[in-house]
Specification:
The chain is an all-alpha fold. The radius of gyration is 24 Å and the shape is rod-shaped. The relative contact order is 0.06.
Length: 55
């Protein structure tokens, strides 16, 4: 009976760590996508404003 709680704890910690890693990876991917979108938007704004500056 004494070995079961320890095993449960190990399984729980492993599951939690995997969940944390997955969530962190998703957030990281989301941030990268958001950053790429922001860069695209800045590029589009710069492209729009460049002809006005040249005139």
């Amino acid at each position: 009976m004494r070995t079961k709680p320890k095993r449960w704890r190990i399984v729980l910690v492993m599951a939690l760590s995997i969940i944390v890693v997955v969530i962190a990876y998703r957030v990281y991917q989301d941030e990268k996508a958001r950053e790429a979108k922001r860069i695209d938007m800045i590029g589009a704004i710069q492209r729009r404003s460049l002809p006005a500056e040249n005139q």
